[in-house]
Automatic annotation (TrEMBL):
Gene3D superfamilies: NAD(P)-binding Rossmann-like Domain, ornithine cyclodeaminase, domain 1. One of its GO terms (cellular component) is cytoplasm. This is Unannotated protein. It holds the Pfam family OCD_Mu_crystall. InterPro entries: NAD(P)-bd_dom_sf, ODC_Mu_crystall, ODC_N.
Length: 324
């Protein structure tokens, strides 16, 4: 049996930012229509706030089954290793045999940032002039890429606790001619920003609701599991609307929402589905209230991009093949 391997370099060579954006627009809408299929996500806690995960999905009927497995290990940064590791396995859509193995970190970075950028496009009433970040990892860089693609006039600012990685953000912004400011506190980063994006491994809230008085949309990437809480219950209470990538997954695994539902302060039926809104061509019109988009990350996102990569690689110079 021939197995095909795609590295991170291959992934970036095979698809453009717009390609990735289009996969995410299409697959979320397809999930709402019942065409993209998602199995329950598995999370397995480990030591030192680590977590192993496994996702299984199809981007559409008749399309290949895609599995992503990996782990998030916050303490890896102390030994110079990435905090997130992932591998994606793509089956042949006809035979079910394992066909392609893809670098999972690159796919995760791209599909997550693309979905966030589309959420900003969908859940704000006007293009933001200032987008604030809390975090310093590769997700921040990927988010800047995709947000600049959709909002080329937007300026960025960030609060990052890790000085070395903060400098990486500065260097990236400079090399891509982005308007970027590094600030000294989370409060300084978010106050006055129309959009705030958190991408951390925090188990305690990073924000206070009062800081978000002028914010139209909070996007949380790191509140992906029980106990992962980038924002607290004061922010939940301050939000007029909370959107999620998948309602069923979020009510069980999105930390701040799990906590609010358990406390009886959030009705799970009030959560709105990202895919439903995309399928309907929704665009937000309100301007004076706070919305939250809580992204736990779901398998259909990986399946959509992985399927495109597999087909793009066939007959190309990218990747390598071995017989097993």
């Amino acid at each position: 049996m021939a197995l095909h391997f795609l590295s991170a370099t291959d992934v970036h060579a095979l698809v453009s930012l717009e390609d990735v954006l289009q996969t995410q627009r299409e697959v979320f809408a397809a999930m709402h229509r019942g065409e993209a299929l998602l199995a329950p996500r598995a999370l397995l806690p480990g030591d030192h706030e680590s977590v192993a995960f496994a996702y299984l999905a199809r981007a559409g009927k008749g399309l290949p089954a895609v599995v992503k497995m990996g782990s998030i290990n916050p303490t890896n940064t102390e030994i110079g290793k990435p905090a997130i590791h992932a591998t994606i396995l793509v089956s042949d859509e006809k035979t079910g045999e394992l066909h392609t193995i893809i670098d999972g970190e690159s796919v995760t970075l791209m599909r997550t940032a693309a979905a966030s950028a589309i959420a900003v496009e969908t859940f704000t009433s006007a293009a933001p002039s200032m987008i604030a970040f809390i975090g310093s990892g590769p997700q921040i860089i990927s988010h800047m890429e995709f947000l600049h693609e959709l909002f080329p006039s937007a300026a960025f600012r960030a609060f990052a606790r890790n000085a070395e990685r903060a400098q990486t953000l500065v260097d990236f912004a400079k090399s891509h001619d982005l308007e970027f400011t590094l600030v000294k506190s989370a409060r300084e980063a978010v106050e006055g920003a129309e959009v705030v994006i958190t991408a951390t491994n925090s188990t305690t809230p990073l924000l206070e609701a009062s800081w978000l008085a002028q914010t139209k949309l909070l996007v949380s990437i790191g509140s992906f599991g029980p106990g992962r809480c980038e924002y607290g219950q004061d922010v939940v209470a301050a939000a007029s609307t909370i959107a999620v990538d998948d309602v069923e997954t979020s009510i069980r695994q999105a930390g701040p929402l799990v906590e609010a539902i358990a406390a009886g302060t959030l009705d799970p039926t009030s959560l709105i589905s990202f895919g439903e809104k995309l399928n309907a061509g929704f665009r937000r019109t309100s301007t004076d209230d706070l919305w939250i988009y809580n992204s736990v990350g779901i398998g259909i996102q990986d399946a959509a991009l992985a399927g495109l990569l597999m087909h793009r690689a066939e007959g190309s110079q990218f990747g390598r093949t071995i017989e097993v």
